[in-house]
Each structure stands twice: as structure tokens, then as C-alpha cells.
């Protein structure tokens, strides 16, 4: 098997933080020897998450067995998921911001089992594919604050936000959020764009927005822009472009990437 050098656009802090966590975990277990050092294991894991390298390819490049590469990756994902911030911690960070940006993102998955309509819960009619829904909170500068656990892709954004307790947490903390029209009705703390007026009884068409309303929507879209960039950065971790493992593992996978994204800033 041949190997070749490659590169990843990640900060050295990402590798260092993960390596430190792995060293602490090894000391806790009392591990005497492993094929790879903590630093090399961290590099292997980040390559898998950032570039979606397969277990077999990573095993060949790092001169370990495929099953060893699998165990190393699963171990590190669990450690990173434990380091991810909770919603309460994220709200404390949000208190210091002028506002935050709330947006939902669909992460594609493979089609799941058909039994008992289990498959239908993951199918997003909007995106026409199977996936999981995650709620993303970002600050006005486009820095990630928090990513929610994964829910089935058929879940609407506002329903997912309510289920995670995001809407109530923002209201209790007095934090204002900027969001798109999917969060219409979330309350006064969640500001959404102006929607088209009701149907005109004479013409049967929606009444157009006024010039002032259009200007408000333009400003609102500019404010939401940094949040869209965070969603794009989330999918730059290629492991999340299409999750091929069980949807039940998606939450840990997203939490692991979240920890690395926060470190990578």
C-alpha cells in the first residue's frame, strides 16, 4: 500500500487540544503503550473528521490496523463530545453579545430502515433528502457559540429549537436572536424578517411589501450573514456532508466537530 503527504486547513491548537485530552484519558486508563502517540492519534482523528478519510486509508497511512484506526477514532469522538459546551454555557456566552444568530441546518445521512415508518422521520420535504436537523447559534462576528444535538430531519426548525429549550433559554436570559422566517412565532426575543402581507381579496394575490419593509429585510439579511457562514464552515468538516454511520451517532459526531470548531477560531 502506498501513502502520500497531504494537508489540512486547521489550527495547530486543534491537534494540541485533542492530543492533551487523549494523554489525560490514557493516564486515567493506565495505558502503558500504544502503536501511535497521542499526537499522532489526534492527527489521525482530525484527518478523518476534516477530510472524511476512510478507516482503511487512515490505517494504511498511519501503519496501523483498520480496527485500530476505528477504535482510535471512536475513542477521540467520545472525548471531544464530552468537551462540547452545554446550552447553559452557550447562553452565558450569548449574554455578552449584542445579539446572536439562530439558524437550522440539515446534515444529510444515508437512508435508514423502513420499519414502522422510522424512515419517514428523517426525510426532509424541504431538502428532498434524508438527514438530521441541528440548531446552530452564532455571534455577530460569525463565531460558533453552540450546536444542538441532532434530531430527525423532518423536524421543523422552530419545533427543534423549542424541543432543545433554546427559545425559552434566550427569553429567560434576555438575549435577542436574529433568525429567518422558519422561526415565525418564536416570541419577541427572536426577530424574523417581514413576511408578505395577506392575500388581497380583490386580486387574490399577496400584497407586496412596502419599501420600508424591504429595507428592513435587507438589513436583517445582512445581520444573518455571519450565521450562514458558520453553517458553511460546519460542512467544511467533510464527515458531516453525508453521515454514513447510524443516525444515533450523529449527536456525538456533531458535538466532536463543535469542540474542534470552537478551538479552531
List keywords for this structure.
265 residues; alpha/beta; 7-stranded mixed sheet; 9 helices; 12% strand
Characterise the protein shown here.
- 46% of the residues lie in helices and 12% in strands.
- It has 265 residues and is α/β, with parallel strands linked by helices.
- Strands 1, 2, 3, 4, 5, 6 and 7 form a seven-stranded mixed sheet that branches.
- Strand 2 and strand 3 form a beta hairpin.
- The longest helix is centred in the last third of the chain and has 24 residues, at 211-234.
- The radius of gyration is 21 Å and the shape is elongated.
- The mean pLDDT is 91.
Main β-sheet description: 7 strands, mixed
Envelope shape? elongated
Mean of the pLDDT scores? 91
Instruction: Note the run of SSEs as H and E.
Output: HHHHHEEEEEHHEEHH
Radius of gyration: 21 Å
Q: Helix count?
A: 9
SS elements, strand count: 7
Q: Structural class, from secondary structure content?
A: alpha/beta
Straight-line distance between termini: 36 Å
Regions with pLDDT < 50 over 5+ consecutive residues?
A: none
Topology:
Blueprint: H1 12-29, H2 38-51, H3 55-62, H4 66-83, H5 87-94, E1 100-108, E2 123-124, E3 129-138, E4 144-147, E5 151-152, H6 157-164, H7 166-173, E6 177-178, E7 190-191, H8 211-234, H9 250-264
Short description:
The protein is an alpha/beta fold and 265 residues long.
